[in-house]
Batch of 3 targets.
Target 1
Amino acid sequence: MAMYNDKVMDYFLHPHNVGEIENADGTGVYGSPVCGDMMQITISVDKDTDVITDAKFKTFGCGSAIASSSMATDMIIGKTVEEALNVSNKQIIEELGGLPAIKIHCSVLADHAIKSAIYDYAKKNNKTYAGLEGFDPDADDEEQEDTPEHI
Amino acid sequence: MRQVYLDYSATTPVKKEVLDEMLPYFSEKFGNPSSLYDLGQEAAAGVAQARGRVAHLINANTNEVFFTSCGSEADNWAFFGVTDAQSAKGKHVITTAIEHHAILHSGEYLSKRGIEVTYLPVDHEGRVHPEDLEKAIRPDTVLVSVMLVNNEVGTVQPIKELAAIAHKHGITFHSDAVQGLGNVPIDVKDLGVDLMSFSSHKIYGPKGVGAMYMKKGTKISNYLHGGAQESARRAGTENTAGIVGFGKAAELAEQNLESHIKNVSSLRDYFIEQVKKNIPDVIVNGTMDGRHPGNANITFKYIEGESILILLNEKGIYISTGSACSSKSLAPSHVLTALGIPVEMIHGSIRFTVGDFTTKEDLDYTVECLTDIVKHLREISSVNAEKGW
């Protein structure tokens, strides 16, 4: 498909980390089927070191929604929670080698979904993280000002 | 890799017989049909024969068929030409919510220039109700435009009845029949339309040619101004090879109409049956009662259409989707929206159109690939039958 680059196609055709972790330490959901894209992410966290040991996703959506979900899970596995909170949609898109401009705002849901999963983990374990300050998992349209129009 | 083309409503391949008739008009019979010498008149004869063939297919008089560059041009001509010629009578146009963008965007353009446009609703089958037209008519209505066959769900409209209502009130009636030509019988006299738009590339003819049926006496201004081509109604040197191709395609469409409808609809019905048998949670959109013979518009619940399209493309299967994600505007299909289909279901809708070169084997292969793809995407999806939307 001419609309996506080879790397995006590879992540879409052969997505990594598909599924749902049973008894996950944190679960985050973002988007809705009405909007056309909805991502769920579940994470396992080592509570002593705060390292994300596993992450799995399930996504309803287009090619770039699935590819970016897959890339995001790859990127946060092995990172500490604080590091994962710094993963931005911009970085995910860069790792994918770029997406069509029209897809950027609507189909990349991962950074919000990751934050939601960590928010869930933090709440369950009474932890606080600087990266979660002011974060509302139910906010519909999180500002993504650091996302450039064209990548 | 095997290629299966299931997007005949988007366009069709040019049939060999059509191409063969066209070829001499590029370099041998290349004359300008307006030139009086033999070379020009040879080209003019090709255009005249094509006009006769198109007219015959729709039961029109030959002098009521005018060639255009495409179906969109004919649609634009109807909107701008009628509202211009009848501006003294009024500034109101009635059309429907499910028209092609060539109509809808012409309406939008006019509404920025002082014309009021009413969009009739459709029911869940995609059909316009004559009583809704009756209610929408005003003393200043100058044009009613309703498509014959919808391009996304294939619903056939009750044009004869709608045209009669318009005429009862002295209003010009236009119908975009681009998807209908060659797929449903068209008799312009019986339907009672004043204007009708057609396109060549939907009936195995070349792209870049369309036609307008214009009943004698219809009050409509010219749209393209210049030379005296097309009886001084549509300027521009004729696309002779294209027009000749359209004529041949029309002749074949007329000869094959009955068998085409029978073969294509039986393949389409087989496809729908196999999809339903092999894949759970599917919905066929529209109605099976009065539908384009090749059209199957199906929603695969819990997954999104662009994903399906890309994965089918990987298998060499070509279809289209009503999903917002696949459109440049990021808006879900206006047609499926007008049918009252929930947005999440529109995102998972796929239009398959079967045509003259489709085989049963093509459809078996498609169902096999589709079954795997739908299962795969549902495994990835964050929504499913248990969780619901």
Target 2
Amino acid sequence: MEVHFVLNGKKRSVDVGADTVLMNVLRDLGCKSVKCGCETTNCGLCTVWIDGKSRLSCSVLAAGLDGHEITTLEGVEEEAAEFGRFLAEEGAEQCGFCSPGFIMNVLAMMRELEDPDIDEIQEYLAGNLCRCTGYMGQLRAIRKYMEVRKGAQS
Amino acid sequence: MNTKDVSELKIVNHPVPKVDAPALVTGKAVYTDDIAPADCLIVKIVRSPYAHALIREIDTSRAEAVPGIECVLTYKDCPDKRFTLAGQTYPEASPYDRIILDQRVRFVGDAAAIVAGETEEAVRKAMKLVKIKYEVLEPVLDFRKAKDNPILVHPEDNWKALCPVGADNRRNLCAHGVNEEGDIEAVLASCDYVVDRVYHTKANQQTMMETFRTYTYLDTYGRLNVVSSTQVPFHVRRILGNALDIPKHKVRVIKPRIGGGFGAKQTAVCEVYPAFVTWKTGKPAKIIYTREEALTASSPRHEMEMHVRVGADKEGHIKGIDLYTLSNTGAFGEHGPTTVGLSGHKSIPLYGKTEAFRFSYDVVYTNVMSAGAYRGYGATQGIFAVESAVNELAQILNMDPTVLREKNLVREGMAMPAYYGETTRSCALDRCLARAKEMIGWDEKYPCRDMGNGKVRGVGVAMAMQGSGISGVDTGSVSIKVNDDGYYSLMIGATDMGTGCDTILTQMAAECLDCRMEDILVHGVDTDISPYDCGSYASSTTYVTGMAVVKACEELREKICQRGAEYMGCSADDVEFDGEKVTDLKTGKSISRKDIGNKVMCFNNEVLSASGAYSSPTSPPPFMAGIAEVEIDKETGTVEMIDYAAVVDCGTVVNPSLARVQTEGGIAQGIGMALFEDIVYNPKGKNYSNSLMQYKIPSRLDVGNIRVEFESSYEPTGPFGAKSIGEIVINTPSPAISNAVQNATGVIIRELPITAEKVYDGMKKLAENRSQQKV
């Protein structure tokens, strides 16, 4: 069936099957930032935004997305690079395979929560697994990023 | 330049961001599956449902008839020459016990047939139509009963061991050995106390986020090109040559960015399948392991059972250690003979004053998934056993376990008979332990504090060591050349798997050449063009390949000076190179690196480049101390991580932020091993831990706070004084957390993981014993 949606600000029409998952559609459309780490909705690597909210694209059927707006890391590249600099300062991107999904969720958190404390950050990002960093460097990067953004706003 | 004082270093010992960071954080298409051609055949494996069986009939006709199917390959198509998938220097210590597809299947998940087709759907459909009639055989599932069991995992006549590792396929033995010094029985007999215990560590999955994956194609010359997520490209070239029975010059291996390895990708887990398809069909092919395959048919940590005896006098002087390790290599012997060695060689030497030691081992074949290399590589298991035994000794002596260690730990200048007779030339283990105690507030918190809410917090300690490369074996080489405008290209064969070796080797080169990071391009591995490197494993890259960088850069500096002098018409003895220009000290005249770079491209008869190779006769150990603080729910036995203080001596820290993240990441993985991770089989050998639903790795809510500091020694044989960091960091959590549970509750867990059930049962038993004593 033909599905029409907006991907990273551009209108797209795709022919999908009833069982086609969004993750595969996005990778086929060239959004290679979207990664698969588990197939069982445990790892968070395939996180994208649907209408601005974080979703696991491995568990969303493409057929149901007619008229929706989808954002991948490619669609927020500048913002990703900005936060990514903080991540890289800590050396906390490491292998980088989980970085796109993680960054999508961090940026979603920045939109959704106002000045979250550590517990709120940890809870928000609990579904984003990382095997390289032990998570501490990611947290340092987030807190420094938040500090700088706060400074820029005030 | 390697003799610069650490405080004078401008780039090394600084937290430089990784050179690939901008691409990684913006999600660029840089990993294997991102760059694979769209027309690759999809390759999948039909896997055995039985732990041990012989394929009696295999009918592929219906599967081959599915539209879009290119081929279905079975054992009948495979060369009958055995090889190993272990990525090790030739001749490999791991026995040659595999063929691509075998008539005998040896674990649930072993490959029975290869299906390749145009689409995933067609391949999945065809897989169901491959009809296999198995003769089901009784498996060997208990590794304690494997040795000399009448059921043989490898009865075949063409099984062979290339090295004298004590292997005997007629006894299910993958390796056997004894290593000792002094009379251990006499020393233990003379001790006031001897702790005699058995510890058991389970198989664990590396669980790198990117599963195993490879794509293959034939190039202009009909050669097999292999793009793979591997830690060992040069070994993969040999392995594929062996597996396909083709000359090695027919194989080229390229490593793109890798989504983690941790040792998993030191075994060529998936490369042979698409390679075989491409070689047979001439068409490009790709295999992407599902997470399920990566958890059931991969290369996890060796399960080990370790019998430890530690003897000491009344004052707590440890006089002798005896360790017997039984290691389970599973269906195949990858890394079996070598991992077991570290369980003794990198645990016993932590105690520097022993009068005698003995380390003996058996490595056995069983009908479970083959084990492989995992960060720590046997040291992790051995250190859990020996450190736990020392913690039990402390309890028997009624002594603070940190004080017991202070009396006995290895110090700089001490000989380590159990570590191949090497002497520590750099060791800050004493400072590591002292600092870790300060960080956690040991003296205030030991042994435990009742929190008054049904919970008790305990602290526990462990020490660790590892090596820096395999002495006398591992070889790293690099070459570096000067290009237009004087920029450098650094060609390395070491494999960055996310750890940052492309960055830290560039840092070293920039430090040697007095230039900026951005003046040097670093090239990833391509076996056709990169200089040989055994690969990134055994904690070798910083130390071994780092020294090759230093050597190559020293030579290049000299050549730049000579060339500059030549162009200026003066003597090379009179010039100096400051990184930007060569100056004639007599006249003050100079020529820039840029001009030299451009001049060598015109009327030139000698390339301006240098190469260096390095292999070390020693493997200087990094050291560390780890202290865990955990909270235990007295009602349920649930263990929660509160705090972890780790202090590492990796010599000079080449990149403080990367070394810190390595340490934090290793500790988090170690916490997973200690508390959660377990590969569970049913009585028929089926692996239940086949998804991230069952095989739980720590999330950010499970690791507590992890704090890392460095106490550096200076390793005189290492680049800028550096030793390794990559593996040691996983070794302290299991024994330290176990000790914290012990100090909080009195419960001693000798089999990982430390689950709530085990702690609860232990507490119940202690309470029963106490009430019986009262009666």
Target 3
Amino acid sequence: MTTPLTVPPVSAEPQHAPRLYRDVHHRVLGGVAGALADHLGLRRGVVRLIFIGLSFSAGLGVLLYGAFWIVLRTPPEDESESTGRSTAQYLVAAVAAAAVLLINAHTLPLGWWFLPSLLACFGAALLWRQASETDRERWRRLSSSSLTASTADRMGWLRIIAGVTLVLTGAVFLLARAGITAAGAGLAAVLVTAGGLALITGPWWLRLVRELSTERRERIRNEERADIAAHLHDSVLQTLALIQRSADQPREVARLARRQERELRTKLYGTGVPNGRFGAALHAAAAEVEDTYAITVDVVVVGDHPMDARLDALVAASREALVNAAKHAQVTSVSVYAELEAGAASVFVRDRGTGFDPERTDASRQGIRGSIMGRLQRQHGTATIRSGPGQGTEVQLRVELE
Amino acid sequence: MSEDGRPTVVLVDDHAMFRAGVRAEIGAGVDIVGEAASVAEAIATIRHTRPDVVLLDVHLPDGGGPAVVAAVQPELPDTKFLALSVSDAAEDVITVIRAGARGYVTKTISGADLTDAIRRVADGDVVFSPRLAGFVLDAFREAGSGPGGIGTLTSTDPELDQLTPREQEVMRLLARGYSYREIGSELFISVKTVETHASNVLRKLQLSSRHQLTRWAADRRIV
């Protein structure tokens, strides 16, 4: 269905096509005689007479004229084919054709198959006229290189041949048996004919469906584009406006940029989306601290594990350690490393800030004592703090996993 | 090296604004001898200037950083590549390291740290950002140690497929944000030994034939 059409642009002339166009300006019927006259350098009247003369030889003229009509094209600059051709002319043509056929009726090698064949030819002519320019181009190409044509194109040919055959069979069946057999035969004939028609018109239906799906794809793409544009407007453009307004506050600018970066990453890669696992929860906690305290938190997580009570405590303690670093260490960035091995989870929160002496911590500093140590001890975990004035701080947290 | 001892550097990045920013930040510490915005341009510039270090963006319009490394490294073995990217996706990191880059840093790195990283790469060291160290630990975790691990060992050379306990310790400390000097004093080894461990890990990352490594990276489109 998605096989690309390897067809040249509609307006392009095939290299081998003769410069022979139907003469739409001086025509009586289809302008065929005029075209041949121009091409052969004869007078139009002479060519017309030849056609009429040939018509009396077993209707050859009519057949030839029909064939030319089908195959020849109108000049590219004049597509208004229907102008100036009256119903009267068609009528004259039809009467003339009928007359020619009747006159020749006794000389023609007419069998029972003649009328169905004529009908089939008429159907083929209709098909050709109905086909889009692209289709005709393809058929023309095929007629010169049907052996090298792609399988798909050859399948198209097979389908048409099969369809025409079925229509023909149906018509013959109907004509031959009409009045002889019961309705069953008629039904069969109708079925066969309908099948043939379905085969013939199949490509047109397919084309319709294909055009519909192309249209739908295009619409989806447009919607996505609008969605992205809306997102960029709501987030990136707003952030950029904020950044311009706070250009004199480097910390604020850094925070805005960092938050925007995180949002975009979430949208592009789906990180930080809560999924009930440890990695995402730790990222979320770090993001919250980043936003609140305008620092950068680099998080590296090795392994992952579904959240449970112990890991909840671990994330909360990590968050508290980050808040401490943001408040007291006087740094712009903190790194977090978490590792989940078999049986245990560890988090290291490290900054290169001012540091402090853990032995002499003020007893009122609830953060470390309660929020970090107490929390982890209740879950049978441990918290170790390594620090010293001027040496930065590293908080090591660890819980056992079930 | 340029005459004053600063390493010569070529900047490869398709964003002119970013190149200008980097130039302003590190121009004092290193000698920037060329810039390029695409793979073809980068290859021509590197051949012409023969820099000590190429600062290479992972994402380029016509093929990406790995294409530059692959094209240039065979003829200029002394030129080192330091990958620099806004992406922290494991796939990007692993791909460019396996192509032959000697280190990986993210674009948010400070100017001073970047200058330091370039000098170290120029001196033959490797540069592990904490994130790259984390990827290595994740990728080389033992078989069956939980989700995200690399699975069974399939290589014919098991040496390349696992880290020694010491290498793991070094990687862990790197992931925790320690410098080589801090790692040395933490593990009671010399800085030179730390560097050797890091180089060995990078070699394993590049040469390990466990095919899951690439798939592991592809599965981890995470920050």
